[in-house]
User: Fold these one by one.
Assistant:
Number 1:
Amino acid sequence: MFKAKVLVKRRPSILDPQGKAVEKGAEHLGLNNIKNTRIDKYIEFIVDTNERLFAEKEVNEYCRKLLANPIMEDFEFTLDEIR
Amino acid sequence: MKPKFGVVVFPGSNCDHDAYYSLKKVLDYDVEFLWHKENDLKNCDVIILPGGFSYGDYLRTGAIARFSPIMNSVINFANNGGYVMGICNGFQILLEAGLLPGVMVKNKSLQFICKDVYLSIENNDTIFTRGIENKEILKIPIAHGDGNYFADKETLSSLVENNQIVFKYCSKDGSFEEQYNYNGSLMNIAGIINKEGNVIGMMPHPERCTNPVLGKTDGALIFNSIAKNIFQMKADPALA
């Protein structure tokens, strides 16, 4: 079994309205050095196989087809074996 | 004497005009809109934080609105005994601001719920409920995705001990079965008040049911209760 940790990020060129709205809050707090707030997605799950290659393939597909939209997002992941 | 209500307008508020309309046109009270970028509460006697989706509900509901310039004034006003009422998103903002304890999480059904519900009045010794006579159950609509009230054990017991739970979701006859607890709130909580009795938050929308033309008017009972009691309370703080 593997524990997968996926990070899905919008491409830097794509506007992140949530990041912008949250940064407004920082301004109101008087935190004037906060720039370029981006809110990404961190996703964890278990992959129930002992074959690393197979796990990688499945996670890749999960990311490409569901967790991320490849038109505007990039993803990266790690797989840690659970014993 | 008529009280003057102030309705705060955040970017993303969408029940601000309902509140204004109900208070001014239906109930004939004085009302002012208060823009989120301002600091001036314009001598209002009661501040309403209306429903909606302030700042797009980004991060957490109410999390960003809580730092709006107007909120500094609202927090000072509340800390000095001023009356503040948060409705729906306004309740969520009060929770984020720490003026009321607890948080709102996603409804247990994961669905946005928009429907008329019944509320039992659990505490009729507040400015917001004292004027509601001969009625123990109100019919008021809810409309929210994040209305599932959560707090730790100590907070809950302190709410109970201090009689801070004002409204609970219930059946038409006032029973508390799970099916009437639409969003999954702990103890069916629909509305709570602070210990001092001047800050209330409620998920249901009284501003949506004041005009008889719309078929229900129980919301008016709450606003009229405020109007009926506010100057009396100010004159005699022991009542508050």
Number 2:
Amino acid sequence: MRLPLAIASFVVLIVHGVVFWNQFFHRWERHQTAYFEQARSLSKNDRERAELESRAPRIEQVVVTSFGDTHVDRCTTCHIAADDPRFAGFAEPLKSHPYSEAMGDVLRNGRWERRHKFADFGCTVCHDGQGRGLETVYSHGEDEFWPEPLLGYVTQANWRKDFSPKLKGKAYMEANCAQCHTEEDFPGTPHVNRGRKLFYAMNCYGCHKIDGMSEGTLGPDLTEAGKKFKVDYLWESIVEPRANLDTSFMPDFHLNQSDVESLVIFLKSRRGVNFAETSLDRYKAHVANVAVVIPPGTAGEKAGEQLLADRACTACHKLGDRDGGIAPDLSYEGLVRDNPWLSDHFQNPRSRIPDSIMPAFRFPAEDFQKISAYLGSLKTPPPPEDGHATYTALCARCHGEKGDGNGKVAWYLDPSPRDFTKTAFMTSKPRPRFVNSIQEGVGGTSMPPWKRILKDEQINGVLDYVMQTIVKEPVKEPRTRNLPDKNPVAASPESIAGGERVFLLRCTGCHGRKADGKGPNSLDILPHPRNLRNQWFVESVPDRRLFESIEYGVQGTAMPSWIDQVSQHDVGDVVNFIRSLQNARK
Amino acid sequence: MSTPTQVPDRTALTTLRELPSNVWNSIFRNPLPSTDLERSSTSFTNFFLHIHPVKVHKNTLRPVYTLGLGLISLFLFLILVVTGVLLMFYYVPSTTQAYDRMLDLRGTVAFGIFLRNMHRWSAHGMVAIVFLHMCRVFLTGAYKKPREFNWVLGVILLLVTLFLSFTGYLLPWDQLAFWAITVGTSIAGYAPLIGKQMQFVLLGDTTVGQEALLRFYVLHVAVLPALLVLLIAVHFWRIRKDGGLSRPEKAAAPAPEAGVVKLKKIYGLQGFVRGPFTKVGNVPDDSVYSWPNLLMAELFVFVLTVSLILVVSLAFNAPLEQPVNVMHPPNPAKAPWYFLGLQELVSYSAFWGGIGIPGLMVAMLFLAPYIDRTTHGVGRWFAKERLLANTIFLTLVILNVIFIIIGTFFRGPNWTFVSPF
């Protein structure tokens, strides 16, 4: 037992030795000793030499309280010569921090005077990093767990190798300059300014919210993006949106590297309320910015085409060989939609398709007109004559190749495109209704009226294709139903109130208390219940169809038949109630 | 003083010369023992040594019997108390300061990172060793009569140890701590009836925040250690009163006739102790003197434990992840490793994993000595007579270990199965 005891005791002794050695011989002490020696040899007066002689290594620190949370910066423990201009030519860490007029430093009587004094600003306010650390790996933020590595100097080991080299460079420090220098054209932060312009020019504001700048709701709020995310994450999110989140539908904007860099630096500068701001400033900026109109794009002959490219429309839409894979094909849109529709839809997409996810972009009216004109002038090849080819060219993007309503962009459309494989629905409706939907489109949805470019025989051809190839079952001859063409109940306030009572009792489970189609059951139901506040849709539906849907249900959907539970008078009340919702909106 | 002339041979010089030895002898009333009497006396009269019996059975000193696990647990606890008190000088249980204090410990406080490493690894070590100690006691059948209640105390000690480690887990206030405690306390929330209330009392809030940090701190540095010290004291006291460590039947001293104490002799107070250990009269035994045999063994275990913890603390830094970010849960958020078996079970069924199975397990542990009333197979590892009990116990232990391993290494984002290789 004695030998192991001796060995174990020896181990205890050795470990103590190592720990004490580490404790009393720090790296920073060596740096400081070297500095004292060098400074002594550089010094020209005796008093300074004596002073240096008497200095012993110690932890230097600056406590900064003026910039947000308290910063405790011990950087000058190693970088002890940072404020000693004689050390300009030395190697790090004994190198003096450069002086520059661009930074506001002034040369007075042959001596530089800093604009940003270390005693006031510390180091991490501008550079990031971990001020409290005394070992390089921690203080520079090389440790993967530190959220703020030295901006533009340090890349962490777990960052993607293909991004890391792009994330170095002085430019990244502008993100911290912008914490105080918030002016939009501050000359010291060209990348931030450019990023801000890109944020508008590339339509980022349409989906993302940044307090005081934009109010998009489709994407994540970026107000504190710079605080939450490291630069590698920001870079990755822009160039490969799906790398972080499989379900992200952020388009790939195909930006060049310098644009991405500017955007990353701009986003890194978004850290909630900046140092220079008050909440009142933020509110004023909000008032000024959220209504701001993007400056008009190029004029001239090809303006429309150029605008379409500049405004990144094809990041979502399809036009020619460019396809964002999120929104409908624009090749025919200008030909099938009329001008008021296009104009309204541009100003605010939800004014025509109430559940559209397309953000309202703040382009000037003349840009909208130019784009509309360009779309209208497109010489898109005329759709093929044969039904199958027409279907593939015009319908498949939304309704899917197989007609199952699951086309490439269907996920992003609300209401969803009709699923033709639900035969119960397809065989229960008369042919004229389908012809009408194709000819006139479906109001308030992404289904456009095709009558302007499709001849009647083409419409019949594509319908035949759908019925024969996808539905494969003959249309059932509808039984004669006792349905009024016009709602027999007058739209009196009493009738509307009665309709509301019935609605709240019977319909809210699926259609929701607001009648917006988002009731508690709606998530599990496909196709989703109708949004009965969709003015364009409801107005395009005659009373007879509303009565039929309520009394006899809609086959192939979750809408049941109410004829046994609800009297025809009550149905009339409900119809009046639904109609009244549209009037209320006007 | 009043009559200095009565001791004429004592000069001031002699007084001075004898001062060191007088002081020494007043503290240590025995010389370094060289006879059996002195050995007994040393153990008996020293406050710190009198927790030992004067003589211990040889079986107690067999390393392969105890593996020193109980002692290692104690020494780890002592290391934890010492390093913990030192850490307390720097720690502030505040959500705004705790993490910065961790950074200061790592960077600027003398020996700070080393203390933290020692505390962290000793804590993990203690959880593991206490568990192994329990396994040892079960597998050698040492929980049987008359040691039933000491086994129950041991199970309570295990639970308190787990809870101590769990409360300490939150204190660094980094992402690892925050989400582990969030997961851990929500497991507690699955308990029927009182689950949510229990979680609320523990956290002082509906989520982990300042109140939870303060509560965990107080539990960690005051309430639980005090409880643990008390329970350890009772645990040790019971070892003595239950007749020392368990040992094989044939090695046990013949028990005096229970019930009737023959009035052959007037016993001192110490005689009124039942059981097989009181040496009254010349009973042949296999015992040896505690000094130096037991003390050397203890010293050996102590030095081994300390050296191991020191080496580990030198080689591996305690983890410190990014500061708490309530909006950014890591995926997956994992509880501390010793609860990962439970978390794995919770991923199948919240009730069974969170409460049902662990509750059953703890209940079985508590009741083990009262269910298993056979008296055979005590004092030997894997005794044949105890095949059934040992098999049940080992199965449960191995299952638990397997679940912990799956939870630790084989679970990735969204708790899906991943291969660590």
